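This part of the workshop introduces the protein records we will be handling. The question running through the whole workshop is how a given chain folds. To make this concrete, we reproduce a full record directly below:
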Amino acid sequence: MKIYPIETGNFKLDGGAMFGVVPKVLWQRTNPADANNLINMSMRCMLIEDGNRLILIDTGLGNKQSDKFFGYYYLFGDFTLDKSLAKLGFHRDDITDVFLTHLHFDHCGGSIEWNKDRTGYEPAFKNAKFWTNKQHWQWATEPNPREKASFLKENIHPMESSGQLNYVTIGKTNYIKNSELGFDIFLADGHTEKQMLPHISYKGKTLVFAADLLPTVGHIPLPYVMGYDTRPLLTMDEKKLFLNKAANEEFFLFLEHDYTNELCTVKHTEKGVRLDKTYKFNEVFN
């Protein structure tokens, strides 16, 4: 098995929205804001090469939305999904599986693209299975008013109409052992219903794709919860469970949205679980 970080692009979000009720004087220590109160965010995905399977975890924003839409998010930098794949010698047609932690547009937008004559949409990965779970799919296709703007129909429905949509089997607990993708999954409901966090055994370590349960190192303290979360108190409970396990078992946390840090570890302190160290991916998994 080989694993690679895949940079798909950078964008900006309102710092207050990213940290909810936490005062700016506190969160700006780790996530400095510009004059418009915007903080830098990455859309870092993960590629797993395992035998005959090439699994991509999340796909970034994609490029099919309007200039007006992208203008809300201040895209910057030269990263794209295709460039990052090509740098490793891969093409999107090589991808066998696209695993989506959840279906918010910044995590799944790259899954679907315009067709050739721009009259409709089609999968951007023609040879891949798309993986979500039934509970989250229903949540995304029948969205509540709070999340409706994050679940874009053009990102979601073509997965089903193409026949490429698949569901991960969920049991009665928040852990899925040895899923259809070959890795364990932690289910979290605070941000959105049944978000999926892969736990991957790699080179003698446990690597966890933290998705939106832990967007950046600045979100490690329990009250530092995004304003986007549908159930913030539940997020705090899930973070406590997750971070204590991460500290106890020395997980390496893969950070999807942290503009500066690719990986981190956490540790127990008198104030609770806190940041231990940050790393570039290749410093740990070279």
Remarks:
- The chain has a mean pLDDT of 97.
- The longest strand covers residues 2-14.
